Structures are given as C-alpha cells and as structure tokens.
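re: the backbone from monday

yeah here it is again, tokenized this time
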C-alpha cells in the first residue's frame, strides 16, 4: 500500500479507538450466544480495559430491552464509565421510534446496504440507491437521511451511519452516501466489509479516499472470511489517520462473529503496538487501552461462549509463548527477544492459577443458604442480615438458570454489589402478540 504524505502536525490530533461489537455481532455467531448477565460482564470488562465504545445490543429487539436499560443504568451510576454504550438498528424510522420508546439507549449506529448487489438482491426493483438513478422510486440515501434526522432530532447523543457491504460498493456512490450522512448530522461512517472481501491494500486506499473526500471519522468493520480481518483493520485505520480523521476499529473478543468471525481484539491491539508500521509511530492508539486485561477477558469470553481459545490464538493461545524445538528454546532462554515479539506479562499472563481438587461448595439454582454463605464468605463478602442473604441467594439461583453454567467469582460479586440491576438484567417476558380473526 502507498503511504500518503501527511505532516506530523496533521496526524498528532487523530487517534485510533477501539469499538467492541462482541455483544452485537459476536452474539450473532451461528449456534452460539450469551446470556444477558454474560453480556453485562463483558461490558464491565471492556470498560475496565479502556475500550472506547461497546455496541451492546439491539434496542428494537424486545428480549434485549431490560438488559439494555439496566446497562445504561450502570453507566449512569458510573459503574460503566467512561465507555460509551451504543445500540445497532436498521436505518428505518420505525426502529428509531421503538428504540426511543422502549429503551434509554442514546448512542446509536444505523445501518443501510450500499452495494448494487445488496440493493438489487434485497429490494429488487422497488428501490434504487440514489435519486439520481430514478427520481420516481424510493432511494437508499433518502431513507438513510430520514432515519438519521429522526434519531438526531429525537435527542440521540451520537450517531454512526453504517454502509453495509461498503467494500463491494463503488467509491462514487460510497462518497455520495457518506457526504449525505455527514451533512445531516452523522458523527461517523462505518465502512463495513460485510463479506470479508477486502485485502489490506485496497482497505488502505479506499478508506483513505473516503476519509479524505468526506472528512468524517471512519469506523472500520472487517470480517475474517479470507483470514485478513485484523490486517485490513489496521491498514484501514492507517488510511483514515493519513487522511486526517480519527479511526474506530470494530473488534470482538477472541474474534467471535458471524461465519469466520470479526477482527480479534487482542490481534488488533498487538498489531497496533508491535507491527513494524505502527511501533513507536505517529499512529496513536487510544492511551486508555489496558492490554494487561486481555487474558482475563479472553478466558471469560471463551467460558461464556463455550468456545475454547485455539491453542495458536494470537497472544492468548496456550502456545503463544511456548517453545519446544532446540534452537527456539535455546534462543528464548538466552534472550526472549530472540523468539518473542512482546512479553506475556503485558497481556496479564504469568500469574499462577489455582485449581481446587478437594472439597468444593458451589452456588447454583438449587443452593441452600448454608452453602451459599460459605461461597460468599470465601470471597470476603458479608451480608448485613439474613433477609439480604436470602435476597442475593434467590438472584444467584436465577442467574444459574439464566446462564446454564456455574457462576464465576466476578458474576457472583456483581450480583451481590448490584442486586437490583442484576434482577432487571435477568427479567424477560415474551412479547404478547394478539391476532384477530375477521369473519
């Protein structure tokens, strides 16, 4: 890829931020999913590690409402802060209305397909992309602008506009689409490589061109169908910074996501810190990022999703710092820099982990008060009276039913510290649909 000539002064003001989409795109992974308590724990962990924003769900989906509102409540309490919690919906006014009526979500990304393939494949002849194509038919730009104005006028604090299938969209229309979004109040444009079609070279060139022409911060959202999601993400971020705008890389923990997944959080952070084009460079990663938390978060996500971390996963896999062959082992023992690019301690690895092999008392859906108290006493958590203990026990029982897994120490602590919020997160009631028969 060709590096554009940009002065140091221009680049100092722009940074690369991480926007996690695990709780939106990651949970769309076929055959997998997360309980609402698990999604909440990830939000807490992401906030702790300095992630700028978490796209934490679908506000127009009924079963998400209590979870979304409870997490917004945690943000208002300062428990999840300063990380932004944002929702995702289609760029249609009905989704905006539902979001405003049913949830307290006030940061939003609205999505619209932009490629010829998806426009024709989804809408047929009913819609065109631009009024220039056929002024007599509804068009995507007007539809997006209508939804954007609705969201803006209704008090949304930040709004990103997603160009779905941007990587297969001709640049002329993509620039027209992004310009219309900017002129009507969008805060960012999300460049979506929906099919994982892009390569790092085209990612840089196209995102540079889009950012340069429109001068709006760019989100890059890459899928891993060709194994290049991380490479495309960092190349795209470089293009955005070179064009003079902030870059927001969409990531997921352990690369979870539809089909072959999304850009892996650990891989993106390590690439931005240690790859030859970024190490000690003018491309600045958000200083709040705490790489030392990634080991804990990665392990929790693997447990919650029920998907083991691959042995060769970047940074967090069991073999990421393992050496066996003679030359490598000898070299690593003499100086780890011979065969290790970064230190395992930076990722929060290296501390001994204790596995209980004797008697264990656990807390679950059938626990009694004695065993429950024993579990919490080991965590040095005391209850003010018997009534409070029974109240938390009941929530722990429900949480175990809710997750269908033994609760982690952090989950147990969260329930004890925020019982009212935990109750809301785990409360769901099916939407009642009334059908009428007309004679």
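seq for it, each position gets an aa:
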């Amino acid at each position: 890829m060709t590096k554009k000539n940009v002065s140091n002064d221009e680049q100092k003001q722009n940074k690369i931020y991480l926007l996690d989409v695990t709780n939106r795109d990651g949970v769309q992974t076929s055959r997998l999913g997360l309980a609402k308590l698990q999604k909440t724990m990830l939000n807490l962990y992401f906030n702790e590690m300095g992630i700028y924003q978490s796209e934490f769900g679908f506000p127009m989906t009924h079963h998400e409402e209590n979870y979304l509102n409870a997490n917004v409540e945690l943000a208002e309490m300062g428990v999840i802060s300063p990380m932004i919690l944002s929702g995702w919906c289609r760029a249609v006014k009905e989704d905006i209305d539902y979001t405003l009526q049913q949830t307290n979500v006030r940061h939003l990304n609205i999505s619209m397909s932009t490629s010829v393939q998806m426009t024709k494949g989804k809408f047929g002849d009913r819609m065109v992309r631009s009024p220039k194509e056929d002024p007599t038919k509804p068009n995507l730009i007007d539809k997006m602008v209508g939804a954007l104005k609705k969201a803006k006028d209704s008090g949304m604090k930040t709004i990103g506009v997603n160009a779905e299938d941007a990587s297969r969209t001709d640049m002329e229309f993509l620039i027209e689409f992004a310009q219309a979004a900017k002129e009507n109040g969008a805060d960012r444009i999300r460049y979506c490589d929906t099919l994982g079609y892009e390569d790092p070279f085209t990612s840089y060139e196209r995102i540079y061109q889009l950012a340069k022409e429109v001068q709006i911060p760019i989100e890059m959202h890459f899928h891993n169908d060709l194994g290049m999601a991380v490479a495309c993400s960092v190349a795209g971020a470089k293009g955005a910074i070179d064009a003079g705008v902030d870059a927001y890389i969409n990531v997921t923990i352990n690369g979870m996501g539809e089909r072959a997944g999304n850009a892996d959080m650990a891989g993106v952070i390590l690439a931005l810190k240690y790859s030859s084009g970024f190490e000690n460079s003018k491309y600045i990663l958000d200083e709040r990022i705490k790489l030392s938390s990634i080991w804990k978060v990665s392990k929790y996500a693997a447990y919650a999703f029920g998907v083991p971390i691959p042995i060769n996963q970047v940074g967090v896999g069991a073999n990421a710092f393992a050496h066996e062959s003679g030359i490598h082992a000898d070299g690593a023992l003499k100086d780890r820099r011979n065969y290790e690019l970064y230190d395992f301690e930076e990722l929060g690895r290296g501390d001994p982990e204790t596995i209980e092999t004797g008697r264990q008392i656990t807390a679950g859906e059938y626990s009694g008060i004695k065993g429950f108290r024993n579990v919490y006493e080991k965590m040095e958590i005391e209850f003010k009276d018997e009534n409070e203990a029974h109240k938390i026990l009941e929530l722990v029982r429900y949480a175990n039913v809710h997750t269908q897994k033994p609760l982690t120490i952090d989950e147990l602590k969260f329930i004890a510290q925020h019982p009212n919020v935990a109750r809301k997160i785990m409360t769901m009631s099916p939407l009642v649909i009334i059908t009428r028969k007309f004679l």
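Strands lie at 15-20, 53-57, 84-90, 107-113, 158-164, 188-193, 218-222, 247-251, 284-285. The longest helix spans residues 386-403.
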